[in-house]
Design a protein that fits this description.
Length: 326
């Protein structure tokens, strides 16, 4: 029997499973006393992390342009900007904030910046933020539809929307003069995606996004998560991982026979479907976990969840193994 906390009766930590060790290469630089790290990406482009989330900013001759404001970094964004501005003798005034997408975990510290900040985002980000009506995430004053070039303080930033992926409004933020691409919640460099392909709404779009990312010229990748930046090799490894999941899921979908599930639960089709989904997921995930254990951190933690969601997309978006009653 599983152990329980003697005081609350709740499941205790002794119930928690152990996982494969995280490869050292998955970690980034150490955090400071306040719990953040700020570093140069290239020239006057910087990134800030708390080990799980990432934000970025450009120092320009007219002030600072901020890219995302994750609430978990929160007040440390201001501290990081101040630290870099004072070290370089440039303005610490944040004049612009660019939203990568509308999600609260990347934008929820937006309201920490004053009302004079110009917020910029995709038009769908604006629509979704109006819908969500969250005072922590003021709607962007400036929007764009497909692409927009920002020229701020002598710096060039290319914003582009290439269709839905992780979210309907997620954009590509390219810094052509800094050899950098910022694309949030698609690839976690060195790590497996978290739950259900990084909680992505559009799986065909999510799977296509890394190739679009690689079409841009860049050397440094800001993925929005984990404690380090990414490389082009990180994107390629992620693509291989997702391709292996795709192939493995297709194999599972045609090799696990649904008949016994519906025989056993003939009077409860939801029980049959639930058990069948579990069986497909397990068969699809096992070889991928085996291959990526020790290669992508937490592959053994999260692959099953991503396999489940990719499997549903392969069935429902692509119609693979769809059965038409004769
Ligand atoms: Zn998101």
């Amino acid at each position: 029997m599983a152990s329980q906390s003697p005081t609350t009766g709740a499941p205790g930590a002794t119930d928690l499973p152990d996982y494969a060790p995280v490869p050292q290469s998955a970690y980034g630089p150490a955090l400071n006393q306040q719990g953040y790290y700020v570093g140069r990406v290239e020239r006057n482009l910087y990134w800030v992390t708390d080990g799980s989330y990432q934000s970025a900013f450009l120092t320009t001759k007219d002030g600072v342009v901020l890219f995302d404001a994750p609430p978990s970094i929160g007040g440390n964004i201001r501290r990081a900007v101040d630290e870099i501005a004072s070290a370089n003798g440039v303005s610490n005034k944040v004049t612009h904030l660019v939203y990568s997408h509308h999600h609260a975990d990347h934008a929820g510290a937006s309201s920490l910046f004053d009302k004079n900040v110009i917020r910029i985002g995709h038009e769908e980000t604006k629509r979704l933020l109006e819908r969500d009506n969250d005072p922590a995430r003021p709607v962007p004053e400036e929007t764009f539809a497909d692409r927009r070039t920002l020229k701020i303080g002598g710096e060039r930033i290319e914003l582009e929307w290439r269709g839905p992926n992780h979210s309907p409004d997620n954009i590509y933020i390219h810094f052509p003069d800094h050899d950098t691409l910022m694309l949030i919640d698609i690839v976690n460099p060195g790590w497996a995606p978290i739950s259900m392909s990084n909680l992505s709404e559009d799986i065909p779009g999510y799977i296509a996004a890394p190739a679009i990312a690689l079409d841009y010229p860049w050397k440094h990748f800001i993925g929005g998560h984990v404690g380090r930046l990414g490389t082009r090799d990180d994107i390629t490894l992620h693509q291989q991982y997702m391709a292996d999941i795709d192939a493995s899921v297709r194999k599972a979908l045609v090799s696990v026979d649904p008949t016994p599930f519906f025989q056993k639960y003939y009077d409860n089709p939801w029980a049959a479907v639930s058990a069948l989904f579990d069986a497909w997921t397990e068969a699809g995930a096992a070889p991928v976990i085996e291959k990526y254990k020790g290669v992508l951190a937490a592959a053994d933690v999260y692959t099953s969840s991503t396999v489940f969601w990719v499997m549903e997309s392969i069935r429902l978006d692509l119609g693979f193994a769809s059965y038409v009653h004769p």
